[in-house]
Every structure is written in structure tokens, then in C-alpha cells.
Design a protein that fits this description.
Layout lengths: L1 H18 L7 E8 L2 E8 L27 E5 L3 E3 L2 E3 L2 E8 L4 E7 L15 E23 L3 E17 L1
Antiparallel strand pairs: 1-2, 2-3, 3-6, 4-5, 4-9, 6-7, 7-8, 8-9
């Protein structure tokens, strides 16, 4: 009887696990070190799935959470400079304002928030403006990468990068 009950419980748990769908915007992490500063970025990675996202669902000129679900969290272990401007060590929410040719990169002191719903520029620690480039190829799923000397954002047909140096 105990074996039958255990079998039933295991079968039920397995069925529930397989019935759950993969999230549409799964969690992702990008990590790396630039000029001795460890950078960790936690975000949710949406996919285009045939939709026009940047400049469409995520309109130009509006604050975007830079991913999906909760606000993207950017954490840096040491003081750095972003595009030549000081950013102290700490945790930040990473927001952007997409544009056709330029993007505003925003580091908000209020790092633990849902999307951009609670965003206010009063919490900004830093804002910089960078050029947007055309990605070498179409990128279906949003990606943030910590590179040798910058952090890049790629999705659909855009590539945006901001330079990170020792603070």
C-alpha cells in the first residue's frame, strides 16, 4: 500500500512538472569583469516571436525596463565610469529609453522594482546617452553581455553598448 501511494505521489509530481510551460521571458544572467570590477546583470530575456518590439511594443522615447518582468538589476563591485561618468559600486535597476539612433541608459538607485511602473527620474544615479547600431544579424531573444570594455544590449536589429572603465 505504501509503495502504491509513493508511486502515485511521484507520478503526480512528474505530471505537474511536465505540464508547466517554459516561461516566455526566462531569467538570464550576464557576468564579467571590466577593469577589476565584477559586473552581474540579472534580467528576463524576452523573444520577439514575430512582433515588432523596439519602436513597436516597446516604443521609442519611453522608459523601458530593459528586459521583461521585473526591472533588470545591474550590480557592480567597484566604482566605475560609464561613458566617462562616475557610478559608485552597488546595485541599480537598469532602464533605457530607446531611440532610432541613440539610447539613454539609466541606472536607478531603486533597484528592486517591478518593470518600469514605479520608475521616476528622482531615483536616477546616472544617465548616459549612447549611439545605437544595426546588429550584424537578427537577434530573436534579447541579450545583455558583459564584454572586454563594455556592456552590450542586442535584440532584433539593434546593438547598443556602453563603455565601462575603472572609476
Amino acid at each position: 500500500m505504501k509503495k502504491q501511494f509513493l508511486f502515485f505521489v511521484l507520478a503526480f509530481i512528474t505530471a505537474v512538472a511536465f505540464a508547466q510551460e517554459k516561461p516566455l521571458s526566462p531569467p538570464a544572467t550576464s557576468e564579467g569583469t571590466i577593469d577589476g570590477a565584477k559586473i552581474t546583470i540579472n534580467y528576463s530575456a524576452p523573444s520577439a516571436r514575430g512582433r515588432k518590439m523596439v519602436g513597436g511594443i516597446d516604443p521609442y522615447g519611453k522608459v523601458w525596463r530593459t528586459g521583461a518582468n521585473k526591472a533588470t538589476v545591474f550590480e557592480v563591485s567597484k566604482n566605475v565610469k560609464i561613458e566617462g561618468k562616475a557610478l559608485p559600486a552597488g546595485k541599480y535597476a537598469l532602464f533605457t529609453i530607446p531611440g532610432e539612433k541613440e539610447w539613454v541608459i539609466i541606472f536607478s538607485k531603486k533597484w528592486d522594482q517591478g518593470g518600469a511602473f514605479d520608475y521616476t527620474d528622482k531615483d536616477d544615479a546616472l544617465r548616459v546617452t549612447v549611439k545605437s547600431e544595426k546588429a550584424p544579424a537578427f537577434v530573436e531573444t534579447f541579450k545583455i553581455a558583459v564584454n572586454k570594455d563594455n556592456v552590450s544590449l542586442t535584440w532584433e536589429n539593434f546593438l547598443v553598448a556602453f563603455k565601462v572603465t575603472k572609476g
